[in-house]
Design a protein that fits this description.
The protein is of the alpha+beta class and 72 residues long. It has three helices and three strands.
């Protein structure tokens, strides 16, 4: 199984969701497209920060993700 994207948005929201998902024991990977674009010299205002989890962890993380989405 591979990684699945569970969120794409601002850095602040992505880091908040990452913390909540990891609190239930699911590892996350964060891809910061904003920082990547800035470092390469191509600032992109549409770039977002993405949060990924393993597909096998989706059942465990989904309640946290859904609650987070309802509260933003």
């Amino acid at each position: 199984m591979g990684l699945m994207k569970v969120f794409s948005g601002s850095e602040i929201l992505a880091l908040a969701l990452q913390e909540k998902i990891e609190a239930v024991g699911v590892e996350t990977t964060v891809k910061n497209n904003v920082q990547s674009a800035r470092m390469s010299g191509f600032p992109n205002l549409d770039a977002a920060v993405e949060v990924f989890i393993q597909e096998t962890d989706f059942a465990k993380a989904n309640p946290v993700i859904e609650e987070f989405r309802l509260n933003i």
